[in-house]
User: Which sequence fits this backbone?
């Protein structure tokens, strides 16, 4: 099957610090991959490059046939990105975020139905017209997931989507991932919560100091034995 | 009261260490050292003034002293209780004593352009009347005590008002007090009692005390100086208590406002207008920005109106107001998006629209504050002597606003900072950076204002109009060049990741 996300030799450096060092990844349509690893392993930086936020220092990133370095806006049109920190404009309401995304992405007027449905499923409908500065951390995470998935992207990038989210929010996120995968979307999830990574994804990639140290079916990281193996990989 | 020296020293030392670039450290040190040097230089130069001019200036002494009292109270009030060494949420894990908060805001008081300008003006006017037998030093010592006492008193009052504003009743009380004060000032002006009130001001006694020191009238000098020392000590004690009280008060305002349901607007016609609407909302929904725009728009105009400034002097008003308005958020405009900038930069087409939306909302803020202040000032200004004066004021306003907007966008792209502007005392950059930006913007706009004050004397009205063209054109070129810089993926990534997370 053709890869929707094709990363080869991705390197990202900030001055003398190399955050991602020769990263390779291939994700096919309808599949999901978990990026796991310790703090500073390069997970968020990788997702930021895939989301068109950071330019790569070297290497190639091709999303659905579009080169991220040459056509960043075409790549941005394909992906939906939930950043690891906040990801919300402090003094705008969720509805204003969605209206802005609809306008910038050129969605048809029926976006309001999709927006209402997503807000309802993530229990944010009552807060749709409150500014996000007053949101709890979990509410903010849920809203970021809604924004990433709003335009039904071909590639969904979720950075720590479960962090501080209550069980109902986690269920809603898992259900959304399943739905988008069923429509052929590729999903990448970065998380420290191994059990949820196993639930959300079929493949897992373990990163350490910016490099891939293991790639295996996510189920192999499940349970006590999986956790023990994961710890060994991190050491 | 326990002295907060230990905590304060540690906080200041850390803040200094956080200024990483040697050039930034040098600029900050120059800003701090510049004030005493400028005071001495201005006082020395003032002695060369013609006797008539010196006499007329000296007559203004008590009024200038009174204006400093007003500024001492208003400056920390407009900053929501004085500037902060660090945003308060960064220190929640540390047992910072209220006395330290108070001392820190006091320490940062001089990093305010209006405060510094007033101190220089006081040094000039005091030097003109302290050339008696005992020399200028005793009189200048009185001035230093006066500045110290009024600054501490201003901070103490500001913290008391912050404490009052923590509840709805307190906020109503503060608005009522502000309204009464405004009505009183208007009544005094309208009834022609302004001169009588100014003559009865206690600052007259302080000014005479400074003169007495120079004239070796030691009993009078000592009486005034001791009174100022006692006032400073009492204000310090009261200020520390007021800060402790204000910080203990449960804040109801911010969280309640964050929880309000806002009406939905009709959909915008284009991505650019949608972004602009969100940026405008981000400004007006921030308490510190809202207050800043109102204060900057109203206060300078009110002062200019009270002073009945002629049109030749009004030329300088737009520069001061525009520089202040740019400092509200424009110097770090992308901080309006906060952590949302990470999400926004993953949307196609955002970057181009975002840049011009930020530039436009900065221009609107600068333009609104400038026009409101000019409008207020013009109400009581004597009729202009010529059309050239009117054109010079308008040319100065356009040039200063263009200069400030271009500089703001340049700073926003080159030196971004993390700042969410959520709290009442939040600023778009750390205090040292604010001081440096403040000095830079004020220097540029003041020089521009001075140029137009000369052009106001020109024989033809088209001269100041033509003079404004290069300023506006240069600002336009600068904005375009900055946009090219912003369009670079590496530059944009640095800006969005910085304002999102620091």
Assistant:
């Amino acid at each position: 099957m053709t890869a929707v996300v094709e990363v080869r030799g991705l390197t990202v450096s900030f001055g003398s610090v190399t955050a991602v060092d020769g990263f390779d990844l291939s994700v096919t349509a309808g599949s999901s991959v978990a990026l796991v690893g310790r703090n500073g392993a390069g997970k968020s930086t990788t997702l930021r490059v895939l989301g068109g936020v950071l330019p790569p220092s070297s290497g190639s990133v091709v999303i659905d046939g579009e080169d991220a370095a040459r056509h960043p806006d075409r790549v941005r049109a394909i992906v939906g990105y939930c950043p690891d920190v906040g990801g919300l404009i402090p003094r705008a309401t969720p509805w204003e975020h969605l209206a802005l995304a609809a306008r910038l992405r050129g969605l048809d007027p029926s976006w309001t139905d999709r927006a209402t449905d997503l807000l309802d499923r993530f229990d944010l409908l009552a807060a749709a017209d409150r500014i996000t500065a007053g949101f709890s951390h979990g509410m903010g995470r849920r809203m970021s997931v809604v924004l990433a998935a709003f335009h039904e992207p071909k590639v969904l990038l979720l950075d720590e989507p479960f962090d501080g989210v209550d069980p109902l929010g986690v269920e809603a996120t898992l259900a959304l991932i399943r739905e988008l995968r069923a429509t052929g979307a590729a999903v990448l999830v970065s998380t420290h919560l191994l059990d949820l990574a196993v639930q959300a994804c079929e493949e897992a990639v373990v990163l350490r100091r910016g490099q891939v140290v293991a790639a295996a079916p996510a189920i192999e990281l499940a349970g006590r034995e999986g956790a023990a193996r994961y710890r060994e990989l991190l050491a | 009261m326990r002295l907060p020296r230990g905590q304060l020293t540690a906080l200041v030392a850390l803040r200094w260490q956080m200024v990483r670039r040697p050039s930034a450290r040098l600029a900050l040190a120059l800003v701090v050292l510049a004030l005493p040097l400028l005071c001495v230089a201005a006082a020395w130069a003032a002695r060369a003034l013609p006797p008539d001019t010196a006499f007329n200036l000296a007559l203004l002494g008590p009024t200038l002293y009174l204006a400093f009292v007003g500024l001492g109270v208003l400056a920390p009030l407009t900053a929501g209780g004085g500037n902060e060494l660090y945003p308060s949420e960064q220190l929640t894990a540390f047992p910072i004593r209220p006395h330290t908060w108070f001392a820190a805001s006091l320490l940062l008081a001089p990093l305010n352009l209006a405060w510094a300008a007033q101190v220089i003006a006081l040094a000039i006017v005091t030097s003109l009347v302290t050339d008696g037998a005992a020399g200028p030093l005793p009189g200048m010592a009185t001035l230093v005590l006066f500045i110290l006492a009024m600054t501490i008193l201003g901070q103490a009052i500001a913290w008391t008002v912050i404490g009052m504003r923590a509840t709805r009743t307190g906020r109503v009380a503060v608005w009522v007090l502000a309204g009464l004060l405004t009505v009183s000032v208007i009544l005094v002006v309208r009834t022609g009692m302004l001169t009588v009130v100014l003559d009865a001001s206690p600052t007259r006694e302080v000014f005479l005390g400074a003169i007495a020191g120079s004239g070796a009238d030691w009993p009078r000098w000592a009486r005034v100086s001791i009174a100022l020392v006692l006032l400073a000590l009492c204000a310090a004690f009261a200020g520390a208590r007021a800060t402790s009280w204000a910080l203990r008060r449960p804040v109801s305002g911010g969280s309640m406002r964050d929880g309000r349901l806002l009406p939905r607007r009709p959909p915008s016609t284009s991505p650019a207008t949608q972004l602009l609407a969100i940026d405008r909302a981000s400004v007006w929904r921030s308490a510190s920005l809202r207050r800043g725009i109102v204060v900057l728009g109203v206060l300078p105009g009110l002062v200019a109106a009270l002073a009945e400034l002629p049109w030749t002097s009004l030329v300088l008003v737009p520069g001061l107001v525009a520089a202040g308005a740019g400092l509200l958020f424009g110097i770090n405009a992308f901080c309006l998006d906060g952590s949302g900038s990470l999400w926004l930069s993953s949307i196609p087409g955002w970057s181009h629209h975002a840049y011009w939306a930020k530039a436009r909302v900065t221009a609107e803020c600068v333009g609104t504050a400038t026009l409101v202040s000019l409008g207020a000032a013009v109400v009581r200004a004597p009729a202009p002597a010529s059309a050239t004066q009117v054109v010079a004021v308008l040319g100065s306003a356009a040039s200063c606003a263009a200069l400030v907007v271009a500089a703001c966008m340049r700073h926003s792209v080159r030196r971004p900072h993390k700042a969410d502007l959520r709290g009442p005392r939040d600023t778009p950059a750390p205090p040292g950076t604010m001081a440096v930006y403040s000095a830079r913007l004020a220097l540029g706009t003041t020089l521009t204002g001075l140029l137009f004050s000369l052009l106001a004397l020109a024989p033809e009205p088209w001269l100041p109009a033509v003079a404004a063209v290069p300023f506006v054109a240069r600002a336009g070129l600068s904005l375009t060049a900055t946009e090219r810089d912003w369009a670079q993926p590496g530059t944009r990534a640095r800006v969005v990741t910085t304002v999102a997370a620091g």
